Amino acid sequence: MSLSYSDLVKPELLSQPVYQGGKPIEEVARELGLNPAGIIKLASNENPLGASPKAIEAGKRALEDVELYPDGGCFELKKALSAKLGLAPEQFIVGNGSNEVLEIIGHALLGPGDEAVMGKGAFIVYKLVTLLFGATPVEVPMSNFTHDLEAMAAAVTERTKVVFLPSPDNPSGTANSEEEIRDFVGKLPDHVLFILDEAYAEYLENGPDLRDLIAAGRKVFCTRTFSKVYGLAGLRIGYGYGDPELIGLLNRAREPFNVNAIAQAAAVAALGDEEFVEDCRVANEIGRLQLEAGFMSLGCEYIRSYANFVTVKVGKGVRCFQELQNAGVIIRPLAPYGMPEWVRVSIGLPEQNEMALRELTSFLKS
Ligand SMILES: Cc1ncc(COP(=O)(O)O)c(C=O)c1O
Predict the structure, then answer these.
(1) What's the pLDDT tens digit per position in 28-54?
(2) DSSP letter string over 116-137?
């Protein structure tokens, strides 16, 4: 009798769910026989304004040298990040999306017997990475859709290796105050690495700044991405910053050429275009108010978001997702996050938000 592949792979893989991302426009068009030009995607918290033209230009130039391997050390990008954040270049690790940086954390820190503390219903990748490395996710219920830091501190044990906290969180869009976060970090024992996931940091005014804690030797590591406000999701590039010793160790778990040259060049240029980022922030704020006003007039409860999406209660989330998708509006149902009555709508351009609200109105009437 022959063995199946399930007998060959690591046991932890067998219970590992596959990450379900927002559906690409082309896939929806294929499945439903729709014209892709008539479909809008508000499902993956992408930037509806695209990327800075400077980033696109830099990416195109980098394409000309595509026969060469990229700089595995991301020298130019680390230099630019160093200037922007006032940290040493050795304090940065760059990844194929911040997702990869989170996975590198798993490679470097998590194994069987270890625990990772996270909010129940927080960004699902924390759980996936933890399970992938055979460690145990300890999911702490949220309070009013917000991470309950007291309960999370109480969930830390001798086996806890890492604590994940997104600020703002996805899919709730909520954020803990800097004071609360600092108080929480102060309670963590020395054997725990605190990970602050700042994927949406640029949308959050007066967000937490923990650089002084890193300098003071607290076990703090932060991740950020170019996928959101910088509009480079398709290039897959993100980074983490922390103590140089930690970064040196994480680099051992990193693939040699994990970040492509086009992404690196585009990211450097994107960092330099602060005006574009500011325009995106303003547009996002206007879009948020538009969606909120629409949800309010429909009588739908929504969660005040500090990011580039709004999560709203619509009744049957999956039905709502399907009906809107049939009408050419892709949003995200939140059943996988334990919120079957809710959907997440990324903030789009005014006409896209309007279309989403229009289709939501007909769904709610039906
Ligand atoms: C909270 C959070 N962290 C990290 C990521 C990963 O982003 P990326 O891998 O594109 O950098 C996302 C993406 O949606 C996110 O919502």
Answers:
(1) 999 988 899 999 999 999 999 999 999
(2) EEEETTS-THHHHHHHHTT-EE
